[in-house]
Records
---
Amino acid sequence: MRMDQTQRGWALAALAILVSSAVVYVFYDLDAPQGPRGGSMIGLTFGAVGFAFMIFSALLGARKRVPTWRVGRAQAWMRGHLWLGLLALPLILFHGGFHFGGTLTRVLMWLLMITVLSGVFGAGLQHYIPPVMTSDVRLETIYDEIGRVRTLLREEADRAVESLCGSLGLHKTSDQEGRRAGGFTALRTMAASAVPLRTSAAVSAGASAAVAAAPEIILLSAEESAPLRRFYLDEMRSFLERSKQRGQRLGDAAKASSVFTGLRTLLPAAAHATLADLEDICDEARQLTRQERLHHWLHGWLLLHIPLSLALILLGAIHAVMALRY
Amino acid sequence: MTTATTPVGFVDISLDGQPVRVPAGTSVFDAARVNGINIPTLCHLQNQTPVGVCRLCVVDTGARVLAASCVRPVEPGMKVVTNSEKVVNARKTLLELLMSDHPWPCARQQNSGDCELETLAKAAGASPSRFAKRTVARGKDDSSLAIAVDHDACILCDRCIRACDEVKSNFVLGRMGKGYSAGIAFDLNSPMGDSTCISCGECMVSCPTGALTNKSVVGTVIAAGPDAQGLEAEDLLQIPVFNGVSGTFLELNRGAIVKHRFRKDQIICREGEFGSTAYYILEGKAKVSISTPMAHVKTQGGAKGFFKRLTSTLVAREEDQREEEARDRTIPIDASVDLAYGNPVAELGPGDLFGEMTCMNFYPRSATVMAQSDVVAFEMLRNVLDIMLKNKTFRAQLDQTYRRRALENHLRGVPMFAGLSPEFIEHLKKSVELERYAPGQVIVQQGAPADSFYLVRIGFVKVSENYPGGELVLAYLSRGDYFGEIGLLGGGVRTATCTALDHVELVRISGDDFRDMVALFASVRIGLEAVAAERRAANQQRMHMVHNVPIDQFLSQGLMEAQSLLILDLQNCTRCDACVNACADAHDGITRLVRDGLRFDQYLVATSCRQCRDPLCMVGCPVGSIRRRNSLEVIIEDWCIGCGLCAQNCPYGNINLHPFEVLVDDPERTGRKKAAIRQKATSCDLCMNLKEPSCVYACPHDAAHRVDPRTFFATMLGQGSAK
């Protein structure tokens, strides 16, 4: 979620709550002869409100499980989660009078701080990464589809290379027609363009407009195609299969560009269009790797944040019951 | 060498040293043939006038140059040598020249190994040719369903032209062009499929090379079985509907037509199934019906309470009447009859053809056909049906059946024509013309004089208007729709171009009849004028829009065509898929959106119904159940048979098929029901019964929005340009 002008209302409200709580806490601290205590009325109030904020924040997960329920827009829940969750930390600190207490409360305090900090970190990532992903990964696809798209790319590259070098005996895993798979994978050929419209005006001598143009097939000799074959089998194919592996020349846009420039000087002009295709394929594979990495950053922090939140709620509830009962 | 003993009317000549006597006027070629001497030729056939264009039959008559034997009559005392070294060398050179301009092996040689040119060239040692090949292809014409034309393989022998003109008197084929660019042409150089060719096949059987070959349909043979009998050409020619069809052509298409015997209650074809054949009933009666429930998908719940999940159910229009739902229209199917909404059942009998659209355009079957009594029917593939449809006898019979049984229903199916008097309908039955158009053929041209009114009987018609930047599609019309009224009611000039998108059949009402109709029936006039005004206004609005949004990317992504877009602001979107999950949750687990699509600026146009102004999804619906409301919102009528063609046609992948469990008649046990899965097409319904679409409501990051692209993007781009 972007931290922009739209957050202003929530930010001001949170600030107001924080300031008023701080004022209350200062007076309370000055008035209390034994210092602020969690068991006092004001301390309990800070604790209850702070815990309520935590519960509300945790309920966002539950809210997401029932997206069609009309219990407030998810956007409002998310903003509440961010700001009230953030407020929970000072309120709980006020509740404990900035003391960490016994073992359970100490654990709780650390859990709370780590949870809030991980949340702040996550919010920061969700603010910065989406624009980066939008600009860096132009051929973004659905995350779960990345593996399949990679397979399609490799098959497309196999076909392109074999169209120049002849059969290389590369294993075919899919019968699907080669189509650049990134970007809009669901986009299909416009039905209208599939309709064979014929215009007699365009008919040239002896031919009708329903002429089927045969693709130009240029097969290089073994000698001519050797550099391409070597490059593809030794480097590019392994890059397409394991593009996440670091240290590969094709994994770096500048180095990849110089590799392809070098290849162009070694291959006849007829092969340059195919080389351009291969370069595009490498670029797309790089983008998919970038997307994966950014995706992991975008969502990976939740692996820490969510379990800690659940533990915090559970232990917080235990602490509340024990403190009130005993 | 004619002597006193030579009878009158005969000529004596020497043929390769042998004295022979032949009737005067005989060609050297024929003289040699009757005397057992074979002279090779390519352009000459015994049943055609000799033209001597291939020059392969050259012989040495002792003259300065060699003579083409097929056109050279014998002369008294002529000494003919047919196989001297000079003659053989001349033929070899000719064959090499012809082979240099001929694909090797050509289609015919590949299929049946009997290309006459290649056979002769091989025998003469002239293959491969030592001359340079042609560098510019002359092309192929794939437009005919029955015959493939490969201009590259044509040697300009004119056998096809003479077959068409002299043998069949059809006068469709001719020569066009000069010199190197010369070739054969159909009519005024139309593609064969659009020409007046009747696919008799005579040209094809006359062609010596692979220039005109029989076009096999994929899976060209219909499976024969105990109840399906393959038919020989001789048997077919005994049947009146095959009068005039070339026996050779039928022979070549053996297996593309079979005679079926269906027992009572046997299913002939099922709705929604894809197929490639049509049926013509010879004997017996069949019931045609739609068994998919007459209902539409309704998503309910949520609005009534916080904790009620949304569920999608099938409801008929009696239970849930939607705005602008078709009330009076009958259900168009791929047969000579229409079905009623309340009771979608009709009867077919001898002489009825059904499955024409499936066969010609590969659309799914529109209805289930079951034998009511024992039925005998022809099942045929596309090439045979095409031949039959071009056969005047068969065509006349079909047209007569249509005029007798369906035209009235068809006319009355158009609400504004419901008030026509029976007398006028009778008049129209006789006076209307039934016309056919091939895919891509222009029916009326923008700017041309308006002289007729058209009612769509079969197929889809694209209505488009030219504007300075290109062509703007205004509408797609299907069975039951009509066009041509604006031109007739207005200035007498066509305001748009109408083009056949597929195999189209139209009912043409002449301008005179149309004027009589609007003069006699006020309701028709008022209705047509209202529709014309509405269409004019809509067209103007669209044209206005085209001129006001001249942004290439906006146009190329089809965004201008959309009325409502689900866009995701990629600067905000964390790719959490909450929108997709919400959509799935709102529609029984079947999402109607995919978080993937084209990008425009920082927005992702998600895969979700755009309510296009150019709704390609509607093209091909075999029962016409997907259409637009006047608000241009897509509505799927109750009689959707769940064939999935609309989902296939939507270029944006925005239509889904939603499965429902329903009870249907058990075909194996009469009177019993069994559970079956029936699908209904669905697209984004904007969660109409909720205040806000679920996807937008569930987005926690303020990234998902449903917007009108014209206002949303135009404002944004306007601001951009202002800066």
---
Amino acid sequence: MAATDTSSAGHGSHRHAGHQRTVWTRLVGWAPLLTVILLVGPVAAGLAGAAGPAFGWLPALGGNRLSLAPWQELLGTPGLDSMVRLSVVTGLASTALALTIVVLCLATFAETRSFRWIQRLLSPLLAVPHAAAAIGIAFLLAPSGLLMRLLSPALTGFEVPPDYLFPGDHSGLALIIGLVVKEVPFLLLVSLAALPQCQADKRRHMALALGYAPVTAFLKAVLPSLYPLIRLPVYAVIAFSSSNVEVAMILGPSTPPPLAVSVVHWLADPDLSQRFMASAGALLQLGVTLAALLSWWLLERLVAWLSRSLLENGQRRTAATFGRLLGSCLSWLSIGLLVASLGGLLLWSMATWWPFPSAWPEPLTFANWRRALDSLGPATLDTLLVALGSSLIAILLVIGCLESETVNRTRMGKGATLVLYLPLLIPPVAFLQGLVQLQAQLSITPGIVTVILGHCLFVLPYMFLSLAESYRRLDPRWSQLAASLGQSPGATFVRVRLPMLLAPIAVALAIGLAISIGQYLPTLLLGAGRLTTLTTEAVTLASGGDRRLTAVYALAQLMLPALGFALALLLPRLIYRQRRALQH
Amino acid sequence: MTRHDRLPNDSTRQQALHFDQVELHLGSRPIVRLDTEIAPGEVVSVMGPSGVGKSTLLAFAAGFLAPAFQARGHVRLGDSDLTHLPAEARRLGLLFQDPLLFPHLSVGGNLAFGMPPGTSRHLRRQRVEQALADIELEGFADRDPATLSGGQRARVALMRVLLSQPHAILLDEPFSRLDTTLRHDMRQLVFDKIRQSGLPALMVTHDEADASHAGGPVIALQPLGGESITSQPMRGSHAPG
């Protein structure tokens, strides 16, 4: 992170001695640079690697001349307008819906007992991989899904599954639902982290004392300063949902699918000439996501302009009752949907014969699990290898960056924050597709190493965001004390900061593992389909007909990160069981 | 590099701590000036309203001055100049408002943390036990610091500093978080120990009683003017205690 040194060596004054370079400060000084290279390098190279073939240049496949042919071919693709429309609409709609739910949830439940429940549910729900959640939603809401079984035949009179298209409806409703249930926990988490920064409780209390209703108090006194703090994560959500592949493959329409899914299809087409078009499609996806971001930004301006008078009009009960009602309904609905889909997955994984409309499979057996065991083993092993590899690389860099901030007493600037979010703001399909073309051009063998490095791009930002808060909040006097007792900066890290930050570091590792385990696209593209992880297998199975086996894989994919979180919470407590002050 | 490589050896113990023409600036604004000498066993109290730069002065002496500040002048221990040494090589013991016992270490671990390395494990353990006996906490070595009372923690923090064999002690409002009865006892203990060990000490405080108990000279810091830094009378010289 390009940290800015705030010291300006004044005329005739000397830099004070705390800044002498030791081995440790030199070592961690490299971390920010390495991190920037790791994050910016592949994204830039990937976009360049997509730009070449998009204009006909890819010597490895015989493209030696610049031409506009790939673009002409792309524009001639039937249904391109629907693909683009689907990407933009599902991206913006799911983000708007998720943000509304999160804002109303915070406004309704702030400082209540339900809120503590929601907070407790947050980490496990966050750990659910996108693919598993999408599969769960599909099995829950499909015509023969759990919900319809619960209502039938008593309420609906259906003896056979009704005939409606879900998942895969043409308007993308299923896709939007699937995206929203996963975006809500994420946006809730970043909001919770940002609330103390804008002194939310004090502002709310002040507004309550002035006679504002609770929901109105939050909307008028807290939200205007909260939103700027979560703007980047919101943009990341837009970028993700307008370009996501695995959720769209499972829940989205297929004729035509959203643009990102088409790009992956074209790239995988046995007809190699399709690859040129895939690159043009990848750049178009970049444009589509940027357009979605721009529209959102304009929407922000509009809302800010419209709400200015609303904020100052003195109305104490704006949206007070309606907001509270909607807030509790939508919050519990989105959490309930996710929890119910996971329950459904569990039932499907243990079902043998489960005819419609019975709501409970009988008998429940482990037969499906036994059947899957042989193939589950190797896939689990590869999943773990990739997850551990990328998380370890990322945690070293993240700790290095934060140590560098600590020993040099600087803070990363705005530009550095943007670099951190870069892989989350650029549609992955755009630069990953370019990296594949580069791989082909430079004849780099795709495999586990490229996949691990690719996963780092997505793992590192989340780990940084999770650890930075705890690292920066650690009282600097602990380190000063250690130094005054003769400990060098390196020894202070090993003997003071590392043990005191063990719990947040363990949680950051668990988050890294969860993110890596959930990755679909980088595994598929950078591994050239040769690396089978639980996620790639679950997504592949989801398009087939075997619900039982799909459920087994989705659950396995979900259990691994859950296990990681359990360990991250348990181990530090176990290690410090004799230390009361570290038992939070 | 072990800490002994660049440390003055033990014969430099019990030397005076000098602040030679020390001036701290924030940008072009002077914050604090100090020119004084602290004799072994003497406690010099620095007083003044909050925001006057007392803590900045301490941070400068200990080697933690924030990068935003610029410093002139020197901190010396006897003949050796500390100004350019990193914090960990200065051997200036620090006592904060809070005891700051490391939560991941036992009481004994906290005491051993600051002890110079190299001695046998048995000897270290013995010293820890002895130090605990010294502050009436026999048998507390394996206790979790979180289970100690406020007064017990403050005493352990003091012994941790002394066991690290510092060459001088810096105290940052060391008694302000203690209740009245405890404060009296702690003052007694801290100042007795400092006198016994013959260490020069600089104490930053806003409590008159702290300064009068310390018995040493009192320096009253006053806010320095923003613009004119030239012709003001020198502040920070000794005033009668």
